[in-house]
Amino acid sequence: MQTQPANLFERAFKKLVPYGLEAVAGRRAVPDIMGLDPDLPETDLGRVREWVDNCLDAHAGLVEARNRAAMLGRMYLNLSQVGKVRFLGMLAEEYGIDDAGVEQAISGWQSALNGERARKAHQLRKALEPAHNRLLKQFTGVPSGVKFLVDMREELLGLKQEHSELESLEADLKELLATWFDVGLLQMEEISWNSSAALLEKLIAYEAVHEIQSWSDLKNRLDSDRRCFAFIHPNMPDEPLIFVEVALVSGLAGSVQKLLDEDAPTQDIDSADTAIFYSISNAQPGLAGISFGNFLIKEVVKKLSREFPHLKQFATLSPIPGFARWLENCPAAQLCELPGGEQWLSLPSPRVVSVIEANDSMEVRQEALTKLAAAYLCQCKKGTRAQDPVAHFHLSNGAKVARLNWMGDVSRKGLKQSAGLMVNYLYELPKIEQRSEQYTSEGVISQSSAIKKLLK
């Protein structure tokens, strides 16, 4: 869990419960859960178990329950990884669904008369809710509590790989977060150079596609011919969930280095005809699997269309992050069946995509890799979906594979992952919904004439 949210939670706790344990205890005897061994041995785990029981006490008031949750969160942040595994394992295994209670609720519903059936159904639904869900919900009333839960799930995603007993807790937390982070509850905000310093720092920290090198680099990305939009949750006002960076240009952009060149002249936005989405970053790993990106892109397209009605096209300049790895692991027999495969295999060894030079202009190599990239994007699938994760994202949203750009990203990362290639995905507004449906239901990938030519 990141140190910054921990500090935020600490500050929120001190504001919420300024007098510590005594303020929470009131007249009742409660175990002291501060000052525990960070590894949470069994003796300390028993004290935490008693505290959780008190948190779940139906007779406790809402304010007291919230304060107890804050104390529990503060305790959690002080645990080592060993201690966190023990605490989370306790929640998963001891505070799940009460089987006896469920059986009793089922029996009550089955035997209920018509007039009682709705009430008994409600009781059954309550019985099916794990006890740890009721505990986790208490954190929503704690300042920074929602961010605390998002970060907890980030940890669970990593821990469950070696601790399968945590899978049910992670799945239940994901369902709760999906409800709390429904897109209808999110706010789209434009981020500018005049935004708060705290938010701008988050932008630098969370940029996942093209690293922001400096404050001047960030200022360039927020210039008059650029836009940046983010989804914000009301309970996490200083934390972007996902953000997209946009450049207003003339025609499709083919090089991210040119797009981000601080010395390049500013585009006259009145003459710009294209909005290029060149970076989309998920800022909260704890919200993995809860999709916002497709909604954000559509909202941004709507906003830009209203603000700049002269824009003719909306497209991305995207990496192909799985291409180099796929090509290096693809069997020769399979490559021979793909466009560009025989050309690639005819080149002298070593054919190492990840160390291709940025100034590589060998015609055969360029033609072979460009054709193979087209095949990778459009023909090599996992079931009916595109194998490349970025391609799958944009195709699911209704985009078309429009153009491949040789040496579109000559950074070390771009050369290593994508052999320097970048791709434009084109969003044609009247066709977005139809293409999205065709791809998600049938696996149909819309392609421009230039891409189709590469695949012949």
Describe the structure.
With 456 residues, the chain is α+β, with helices and mostly antiparallel strands. Helix content is 49%, strand content 12%. The chain has helices spanning 3-16, 21-25, 42-55, 62-77, 81-94, 99-111, 117-127, 131-137, 145-159, 167-180, 197-206, 215-221, 256-259, 293-307, 323-329, 332-336, 341-346, 363-378, 389-396, 412-418, 432-442, 449-454; strands at residues 187-190, 226-233, 236-249, 274-282, 313-316, 381-382, 385-386, 400-405, 422-427. The strands form 2 sheets. Strands 1-2-3-4-5-9-8 form a 7-stranded mixed sheet, sandwiched between helices. A two-stranded antiparallel sheet has the order 6-7. A hairpin with a 2-residue loop joins strand 6 (381-382) and strand 7. The radius of gyration is 26 Å and the shape is globular.
In short:
This protein has 456 residues and is α+β, with helices and mostly antiparallel strands.
Number of helices: 22
Are there runs of 5+ residues with pLDDT below 50, and where?
A: 18-27
Largest sheet, strands/sense/barrel: 7 strands, mixed
The total beta strand count reads 9
* β-sheet strand percentage: 5-15%
Strands in their spatial order, largest beta sheet: 1-2-3-4-5-9-8
Termini gap: 49 Å
Task: Report helical residue fraction.
Answer: 40-55%
Structural class, by secondary structure, is: alpha+beta
The pLDDT mean sits at: 89
Query: Could you tell me the radius of gyration in angstroms?
Result: 26 Å
* Coarse shape: globular
